[in-house]
Amino acid sequence: MKKITVILMMLFFATVANAQIQKGNIQLGGTLGFNTTEVDGNNRNIFNFAPRAGWFVSDNTAIGLISTITSVNNDVFDPNLASIVEQKSNGFQIGAYARFHKNVVENLYLYLQPSLSFGSAKSELNGVETGDSSIMSLQLAPGMTYFLSDRFALEMNLGNLGYQRNKTDIGNTEQVANTFNLNLNLSSFGLGMSYYIK
Prior knowledge:
The chain is mostly beta strands.
């Protein structure tokens, strides 16, 4: 049985050798990401889902559209209640991206993906809505693509370098936050899969 399994695996990998991405290919895919942090017993969980569709304008270079759904849950201290309460934020963004691939070994590509997106978010504290936000986000994300076959590929992005402008309306007041971040580690990564139409 083991010999049959090994032979089948060798045949499978033989069929996926030299997968290439070329001008005219269409890429359908997305990433799923989760990041969790605990500080002094307080948790912060971030979940995001980013489906996308791209078209290769040249070999190894694609442009496309991306959307992102994000959910953030925080445990924060409320001085009025003298206790830890739950803070939530849910947002949606849509934008454009480019992706530049570099083949390093058979079936494995490294990539850089700059993107620009716009969106909105709603936040609440202990179930009570606290504000609406408009968001502009500019990011540069590195990652890897590994082809399982000629058309299917696994992807992993490894954090990002980014800028975000967040304008929040809270009652009659307006707050603007500008955030720069560099997060290139395995505590914040996204896994995804893509299908290539050739």
